């Protein structure tokens, strides 16, 4: 197509435009909604709040106001302990725009005791090579003056020093085999590598 | 923080895109940068402005680009009494569909009547108000900046700042 | 062709802003309602399809957040369109025609209040020639209105009458955002908004949601006393360049209407998705409807509540509801997308017995 385009005389031999700048900006007033607002309010009071589903009793954190399994609203607030188990993690070696962390750093999924889905946060105060699945960790908070309705009120999680949790205690989360309402996915179960 | 207060926060979403044009759309913007306008002949010979790669009715690939005038006729218009962010003018203006002399289809742009809606009329004649070309850079000197709020032509639909009414005494045009 | 019907419908009470909730919290009561009305449990739903817009929400993959509301674990068969829910309904209908589903849940929602809707909608325009000029949705509609007025296919009095009828009809709609008795003289004397459109010629800014349950054949008869059967459904799209189209008529609506079989029988009611008053007139003409014989927008239409992304599905639901209640036997439901009626979906719904 490009080769047989007939251009008017005035364009022949002229350096063509190949791209155009089209910057665009849209502004919104974003609403966190009830569940997220309650969670963030709790964070600013050093509380980690989950919500429990009235049908299946699963506890979700951060809560979203609905149970993703049952499709029903969740309202019951659960005050969760600030300790949990690392279910999986990754070591970040790549810098990107806006990132403030020193490399390498560890980002992990942390299953707080009593909750059914893990929370994502940072792991510090331990060499990256020593972070492992099953590691027991606890939240480290900012000072009182820096507390606010943001997950940044928790600076990071650090090892508690307890023995690692047994794989069985969090395997359902890793393998996606959590039994629910009597349904199991036994065909997906396998031994951890 | 109130017990029942739902948190809100401003969120700004930016799309800092630079879009590739291909040869047909690229030719249109090349012409704008140079200070003139081109269209493309459709399957039935209608000159389509702005140009497209394929005929919108037959889907045939199109090849023949031609120059059209920078003067035209307003087919329809809408008066924007309170301009929104990033629209072509900050003062009240009209968006209009304008068929340029030599074109068979209308293109959309802004018309500046100095803020007077009574000066707009379907069928009126308008001419392009071009932004200045980028001044050449001499060795050892930096590129001059455009005047505040202004732009240099670079290959962009706003190389035409807007259209404006042709004075009644002007005999230019069909 | 399988017989597919709408067997239940639910929507929010539409308001200017729902700053108190996020999208899934706004949507949940509607989902609970539509599922309860249909009398099914989650495991009976074979397919879920939703319609919403990331640009409207200002968030990428925004629809994923509302999936929690349909309980997508264990995994469900689900799809999404970044369009009005009527197109999600169309996808579900196709799925059912292929025999892959007997019961389908369709939902859609949108909050127009957090952003600037007029500016957000510019992002659907040609990114080279149009979007950089930010021709907002009211301005482009106004271009179409003036073209139609200049051509003489509509009059300003007719536009005003559309608004009067819509607001009066909405008095009977508990979910409508705007309703009331307006005077023609007042409307004609009102200050222009984006001339030739007045504020009242434009739909309001709305946050809202809607959902519909579809069922096929005997399943529909089992679950619903008087299903609203989809006898025909089709959608067509025109070129995006304004210069390539005749803005004073809706060719795509006429084509979709012919394919859907609108003219095959009497049309008791027509729910037309017209976010601007002049568009209702253009659509009525293009559908070949006789406004004297057909009740147009008995719900009040989009002029009385316009939750973008759900407004079209609501037309389907409002028409279906009247059939299910025995208030109508045959209805047309229409949905539009894009600037100046660029893309249109037309459905014909019928009740039996």
Give a brief rundown of this model.
Chain B is mostly beta strands and 174 residues long.
Structure description:
The complex is a heterotrimer of chains A (193), B (174) and C (353). Chain A has 193 residues and is mostly beta strands. Chain A has two domains: 32-80, no CATH class; 82-175, Beta Barrel (OB fold (Dihydrolipoamide Acetyltransferase, E2P)), CATH 2.40.50. Chain A has helices at residues 33-43, 171-175; strands at residues 19-31, 48-52, 59-60, 76-80, 83-92, 105-112, 119-123, 136-141, 154-159. Chain A has a five-stranded antiparallel sheet with strand order 7-6-5-8-9. Chain A has a three-stranded antiparallel sheet with strand order 3-2-4, covered by helices on one side. In chain A, a hairpin with a 6-residue loop joins strand 2 and strand 3. The longest helix of chain A has 11 residues, at 33-43. Chain A is elongated and about 80 Å long. The relative contact order of chain A is 0.14. Residues 181-193 of chain A have low confidence and may be disordered. With 174 residues, chain B is mainly beta. Chain B has one domain. Chain B has one helix and nine strands; from the N terminus they run E-H-E-E-E-E-E-E-E-E. Chain B has one helix spanning 22-34, and strands at 8-20, 37-41, 47-48, 65-68, 71-80, 93-100, 107-111, 125-130, 160-165. Chain B has a five-stranded antiparallel sheet, with no helix packed on it. Chain B has a three-stranded antiparallel sheet with strand order 3-2-4, covered by helices on one side. Chain B is globular, with a radius of gyration of 20 Å. By secondary structure, chain C is of the alpha/beta class. Chain C has two domains: 4-115 and 205-223, Peroxisomal Thiolase, Chain A, domain 1; 117-202 and 228-350, Thiolase/Chalcone synthase (Peroxisomal Thiolase, Chain A, domain 1), CATH 3.40.47.10. Chain C has twelve helices and twelve strands. A ten-stranded mixed sheet of chain C has the order 3-2-4-7-1-8-12-11-9-10. In chain C, strands 5-6 form a two-stranded antiparallel ribbon. Chain C is globular and about 55 Å long. The model of chain C has no long low-confidence stretch (mean pLDDT 97). Chains in contact: A-B, A-C, B-C. Chain B binds chain C through residues 6, 8, 11, 13, 17, 19, 21, 25, 29, 48-50, 52, 56-57, 75-81, 84-88, 95-97, 99, 105-110, 117, 122, 156-158, and chain C through 19-21, 58, 114, 116, 118-119, 127-130, 132-136, 139-140, 142-147, 150, 192-197, 239, 241-244, 247.
């Amino acid at each position: 197509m490009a080769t047989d385009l007939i251009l008017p005389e005035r364009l022949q031999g002229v350096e063509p435009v190949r791209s155009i700048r089209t910057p665009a900006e849209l502004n919104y007033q974003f609403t966190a909604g009830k569940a997220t607002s309650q969670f963030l309010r709790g964070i600013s009071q050093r509380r980690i709040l989950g919500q429990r589903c009235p049908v299946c009793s699963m506890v979700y954190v951060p809560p979203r106001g609905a149970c993703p399994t049952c499709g029903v609203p969740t309202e019951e607030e659960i005050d969760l302990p600030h300790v949990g188990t690392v279910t999986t993690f990754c070591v970040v070696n790549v810098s990107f725009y806006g990132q403030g962390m020193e490399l390498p750093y560890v980002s992990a999924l942390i299953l707080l005791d009593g909750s059914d889905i893990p929370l994502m946060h940072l792991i510090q105060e331990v060499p990256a090579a020593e972070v492992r699945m099953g590691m027991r960790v606890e939240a480290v908070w900012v000072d009182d003056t820096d507390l606010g309705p943001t997950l940044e009120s928790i600076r990071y999680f650090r090892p508690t020093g307890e023995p690692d949790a047994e794989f069985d205690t969090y395997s359902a989360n890793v393998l996606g085999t959590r039994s629910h309402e009597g349904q199991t996915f036994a065909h997906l179960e396998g031994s951890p590598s | 923080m109130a017990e029942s207060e739902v948190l809100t926060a401003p969120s700004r979403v930016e799309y800092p895109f630079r879009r590739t044009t291909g040869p047909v759309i690229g030719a249109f913007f090349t012409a704008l940068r140079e200070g003139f306008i081109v269209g493309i002949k459709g399957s039935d010979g209608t000159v389509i402005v702005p140009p497209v790669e394929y005929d919108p009715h037959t889907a045939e690939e199109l090849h023949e680009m031609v120059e059209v005038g920078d003067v035209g006729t307003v087919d329809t218009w809408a008066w924007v009494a309170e301009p929104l962010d990033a629209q072509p003018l900050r003062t009240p203006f009209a968006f209009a569909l304008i068929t340029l002399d030599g074109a068979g289809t209308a293109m959309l742009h802004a018309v500046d009547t100095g803020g007077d809606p009574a000066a707009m009329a379907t069928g009126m004649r308008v001419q392009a108000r071009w932004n200045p070309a980028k001044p050449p850079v001499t060795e050892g000197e930096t590129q001059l900046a455009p005047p505040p709020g202004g732009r240099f032509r670079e290959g962009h639909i706003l190389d035409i700042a807007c259209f404006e009414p042709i004075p009644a005494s002007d005999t230019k045009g069909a | 062709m399988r017989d597919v019907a709408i067997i239940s419908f639910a929507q929010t009470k539409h308001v200017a802003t729902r700053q108190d909730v996020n999208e899934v919290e706004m949507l949940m009561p509607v989902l609970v309602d539509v599922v309860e009305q249909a009398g099914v449990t989650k495991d009976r739903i074979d397919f879920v399809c939703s319609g919403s817009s990331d640009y409207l929400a200002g968030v990428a993959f925004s629809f994923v957040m509302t999936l929690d509301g349909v309980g997508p674990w264990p995994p469900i068969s689900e799809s999404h369109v970044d369009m009005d829910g009527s197109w999600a309904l169309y996808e579900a209908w196709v799925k059912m025609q292929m025999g892959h589903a007997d019961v389908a849940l369709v939902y859609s929602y949108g909050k127009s209040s957090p952003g600037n809707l007029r500016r957000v909608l510019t992002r659907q325009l040609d990114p080279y020639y149009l979007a950089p000029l930010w021709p907002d949705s009211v301005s482009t509609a106004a271009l179409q209105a003036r073209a139609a007025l200049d051509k003489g296919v509509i009059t300003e009095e007719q536009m005003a009458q559309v608004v009067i009828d819509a607001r009066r009809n909405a008095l009977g709609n508990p979910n409508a955002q705007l309703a009331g008795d307006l005077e023609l003289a007042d409307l004609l004397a009102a200050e222009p908004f984006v001339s030739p459109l007045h504020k009242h010629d434009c739909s309001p800014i709305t946050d809202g949601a809607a959902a519909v349950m579809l069922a096929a054949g005997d399943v529909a008869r089992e679950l619903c006393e008087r299903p609203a059967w989809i006898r025909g459904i089709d959608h067509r799209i025109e070129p995006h360049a304004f210069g390539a189209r005749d803005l004073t008529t809706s060719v795509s609506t006429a084509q979709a209407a012919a394919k859907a079989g609108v003219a095959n029988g009497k049309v008791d009611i027509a729910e037309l998705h017209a976010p601007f008053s002049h568009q209702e007139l253009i659509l009525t003409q293009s559908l070949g409807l006789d406004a004297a014989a057909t009740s147009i927008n008995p719900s009040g239409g989009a002029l009385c509540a316009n939750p973008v992304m759900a407004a079209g599905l609501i037309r389907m639901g409002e028409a279906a509801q009247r059939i299910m209640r025995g208030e109508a036997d045959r209805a047309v439901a229409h949905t539009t997308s894009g600037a100046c009626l660029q893309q249109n979906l037309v459905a014909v719904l019928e009740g039996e017995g």
